[in-house]
Amino acid sequence: MGSCWSARIKSVAPSYSASTFAASSGANSKISSRDGVGLSSCSSTVSSSSVPPTPRSEGEILQSTNVKSFSFSELRTATRNFRPDSVLGEGGFGSVFKGWIDEQTLSATKPGIGIVIAVKRLNQDGFQGHREWLAEVNYLGQFQHPNLVKLIGYCLEDEHRLLVYEFMPRGSLENHLFRRGSYFQPLSWSLRMKVALGAARGLAFLHGSEAKVIYRDFKTSNILLDSNYGAKLSDFGLAKDGPTGDKSHVSTRVMGTYGYAAPEYLSTGHLTAKSDVYSFGVVLLEMLSGRRAIDKNRPTGEHNLVEWARPYLTNKRKIFRVLDSRLEGQYSMEGAQKVASLAFQCLLNEGRLRPNMDDVVTVLEELHEKKSNPPPPAAKAKPLPETMFHAQSFGSRSQRPRIRILEDSSSAKVSYPRPLASPLYE
Predict the structure, then answer these.
(1) Interatomic CA distance for residues 305 and 126, integer angstroms
(2) Which CATH number fits domain 30-166: 3.30.200.20, 3.30.950.10, 2.40.50.90, 3.40.50.300?
(3) Were 140 and a residue from 151, 152, 328, 381 both cysteine, which residue would form a disulfide, CB within 3.0 to 4.6 Å?
(4) Would you list which residues are annotated within the binding site?
(5) Annotated catalytic, 102?
């Protein structure tokens, strides 16, 4: 982990569908323009002779990956013949099954022996198909980074299309933020900031000179958490190679998820790395507020989170209207204001004015370092100013029901994400 192939791998006329969406009161529905802009050509040259040439065919892509080619029989054994009780989640791509393989040989093993894997199997009757499957191999098969879900292998045999990933035991950020129940307790402020930093690092890597990829579908359901709440980006079905040479953007049909797509991308079809920055701002705002990007169950005027919250993000007196009341007393006023300001900058309507992801990472790292170096006990014992203000805004602590906040503990129980899908092709 932490390294990548310096060559960007591209498929012929890549156009993909998405494989997950957040299901609640119509939130996060997929979008696609009716009259999409034509896909611009995107080529690059690599000077190093040690780097293989950019593959142009399916065969070249599969041969150039750093992952194992599994047989269908192997994956059938690993998942106990794809038994229903092994299902981890379902989506437009198909079902995701829990399986086991040997850590060294990657051969199928019995349940409980070896390492756990997540096997995504293409639904033959589904809307999404080979192109998305190939996109996953195309990107995750080449890039390795601590904040990207690791693709272990794939299966291409007759009509079978499968993908094998590392298992992410904490499931998706979406589940932890929005689902209620014993398995999904509210994430604490410190864990939310940890997840935000990890996800930001993943995006920054994709936007960097080595990868130069636009993710295009950054949202809470595509951020998976490992056992230590480390964030890893998943689902590269909508990813695009970024612009090269003198080009400032990639022109493509508008696809993504309602509530997360940048305004300039929606209006013009021009896709840039700053489009991802906007999506990151939406997710950061969801983490701050505990609200979905789109929620029609909210009162009139609060359906769209960005439109409702934007006026409060830079107002020190009104910022607590946005902050999740379940986080009461867990953050400093300075920290909350910095995160809110960062979200505001990411959500600026003009893409050129938004920070790049390296800048976002720097801000979040500074906040993390301050948390790692707390003030002396005497100063720490003093009541925080915003705690009193927060009590005035949301009622005294004694009047509110006690809510257990999920901290970083390995004993907490969660389930793997169960994404559904609304597929749309370019």
Answers:
(1) 31
(2) 3.30.200.20
(3) 151
(4) 120
(5) no
